[in-house]
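Re: the multi-chain job from yesterday

Posting the exact lines I submitted so nobody has to dig through the queue logs.
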Amino acid sequence: MSRRDLVIIGAGPAGMAAAAQAADLGLSVTVLDEQPHAGGQIYRDVDRIAPIRGGILGPDFTHGTTLTAAMRHDAIVHLTGAVVWAIEDQFRISYTRGGRGAQIEADRILLATGALERPMPLPGWTLPGVMTAGAGQILLKQSGILARNAVLVGSGPLLYLIAAQMVRAGTPPVAMVETQSRGDVMRAAPHMGGALRGWRYLAKGLKMLAEITRARVPRYTDATGIAIEGDGKAEAVRFTSKGRSHRIACDTVFLHHGVVPNTQAARSLEVSHRWDAAQHCFVPLADEWGQTDKDGLFIAGDGAGIGGAKAAECAGKLAALEVAHQAGRLPLAERDRFAAAPRAKLESELAARPFLDAAYPPCAEALLPDDKTLICRCEEVTAGDIRGYAKLGCIGPNQTKAFGRAGMGPCQGRYCGLSVTVLLADATGQTADETGYYRIRPPIKPVTLGELAAMDDNTLDAAE
Amino acid sequence: MKTVSPFLELEDAPRVEVSFDGRTLSLPTGANLAASMLAAGIDVFRNTPVSGAPRAPFCMMGACFECLVDIDGITRQACMVEVTEGMLITPPHSAEVRHEPS
Amino acid sequence: MDTDYIIVGGGIVGLSVAWGLLRRGLTVTVLDGDDGSFRASRGNFGLVWVQSKGMKQPRYAEWSQHSAAIWAAFADELGNNTGQTVPLEQKGGYDLHFSEETLEATVAQYEVLKGKLGGNYPYEVLGHNALRKEEPNIGPTVVGAILHHQDGHANPLKLLTALAADVRRLGGRVLTGKTVTEVTKPDAFRVTCADGTAVTSGKVVLSAGLGATQLGPSMGFKAPIRPQRGQVLITEKLPKLINRPSLIARQVDEGGIQIGATNEEVGLDDRVTQPGLSGLAAEAIAAYPALARAQLVRSWGALRVLSPDGLPIYQQSAEMPGAYLVTCHSGITLAAAHARVLPDWLEGTSAAPNLEVFSEDRFAVS
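And the result, structure tokens for all chains:
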């Protein structure tokens, strides 16, 4: 089994930037990533796609090629298609690649596992044809596939981005059903100071809105009572906006109300997390270099708290600097000197966050759905079920998991965990921190028993 | 047979034949399997083992496990697989469990 | 006094006892822990199991047999009361063997036990071919199995949920998120929790699993119990692959194949390990080769609550009469006995079972 100075999990902006920085400082680096090509979700398959669809996707996408280029470094081993399913003490990492289990050891680990779409449980959200907005963007980015009749539902900058990209690609969405209200924007106003420092993002946002408006895409704001209807697949979105009921026929629905850190790997290592009230999600505890409360375990990028791709790139570099310092390859003064530029950039990248978080809050009715709405897609558990288990004495998500299976399916709670915490906290009067989250255990991604058994010492001995 | 798909393909690539649930599909080689199946008009990938409800890709990034299919006998996330010629794809566990030869 | 009984520990054991007491018209308060407590009730393997138990103590075999025999009626009653079925299948279970020697040695032991039990030990030995007729997916290296007809398996999580619901329906008071810090008996019992909650009662049942090691000595018990880790795997939901359960694998009512379990002396560490998971996967594939293609979706470690000889402990405190230690490894198998028979022992009725052999007297003072 090989041992590396640094193993990075995830080849998105944080992981790629960290790999290049660490390799430049003389560390041996292995990057494990599930995808067949570097880029993560934001720069997915960017080397192949930038020349083909760079125009539609814009310079924020093609920027990714600078990161993939820096990844091509002699000291970096990039294992594509590597699915990590267990990380254990002193950092032994188990993963599957090409149908075979393998392991690698690391002195230090950087988790750069990025974000997930915030779960958006609304009536009908499990129907075929309903996808996340991120999925819609991935379809367009990676595969050049566009939904002919799509309604975009929710709130947040990504919703405008995908709408603008659809407009540029010649197939605008049928409508935008937006859940944020004028009041939200008013409440966000005090944060404008920060946003002015992040003016570039706001200018981009306005430009996207102008593109959407020019394409005459109907926009409905303040939408409530949202339900997706259809017999076996999505056929329409029903909602109320400003006192009027609407029903818009469509084939595809893209849902989005923000992204949240993907904490599965960090949780499996029992890293402490805290509830971030502004972003309505749990974030891992980490210091200014991204080191968690587990020695040698770092987190950078959206997985450490949502900041976006450019912020992730800076955070990845900072983590790599501290890793190099701890490994004895970079004196303290050098570390701090190298850190100055990425730290300043990181702060300016994060400046617009408080405004965005306040202006585009999560959709209230998806945070506390009505009783009949499914919240655990895998095991088909409803919000009402969770409220019922709270009445039976469940004060945390691991108890509701035992009582009703929410979080036990193949997605391992990725798309119900936050819903269960919020529902339970609401039912018991505890805070989200008191309520807690699922205990995440390996495998953090499913692995076949055959792959697992092939790593059994006794089996290996017998084969020799 | 060409099904009208709710999705439009911008790219053209060399195609290979795969089979899904007994149907022959012509998909772009090397493309993302879940995306290509959607573009080919497959709107239901599987039915849940809990209630039998129909499901199709949701997140396209390997997190939701809605796009599960059997590929050559093993359950995989279609959104994490690239199209190769001759893939035998079925909804998960739709075939009887085969008995191992002893 | 606030209540007739305080039950310290709201797992399967505590809730089973609480349910039985409530059904007799007694008042009960259950003090339960928090979301992160070590809970064997949600980590166990779900067998309702007789074979191999009590090889050295036939009374334990009988106690398990009795509980298994009344389990179905118990599950039915819970199901009727709550509208939530507790899945149970009692059509026998296997001890699978990969060598003739271990099979023969086990059969020899079973014959001895069968004699002590007056012949009530209905099992048969299946050779590979006979086993294959019953279990078409069995692997070629399984030489045979002991099929014991009193064995079976249940859905332990649905049992937990149904008990939680029915205890409340019967008027039981359940306080959650409680850590009991002190039990005193100035006159009545007074049980105090870390958050300041205090409850008084006529009797106290200590059924706190591993928590009894801390509280037990202060209540006059030896409570010589220790944790033993078992790692367990469960696959994606699969079509019918396994008909009867074994200690290696069982197919649960929802369709997943549950695979168990390691026996590890690692203290209060309930994590899973790659070597542990890989070893279990290899054994399960040897038993059922088709499992090689199945996806593992979850694994967990849980801590068994073990006494030195593995048998339950039922003990009234000599220092604090009216305080009872009730602890066992097999809370699922014994749930029916705890619900329907143990209350007679706690109440000292004429129907009280003889549980002498399960007292702490059997543990030498060291």
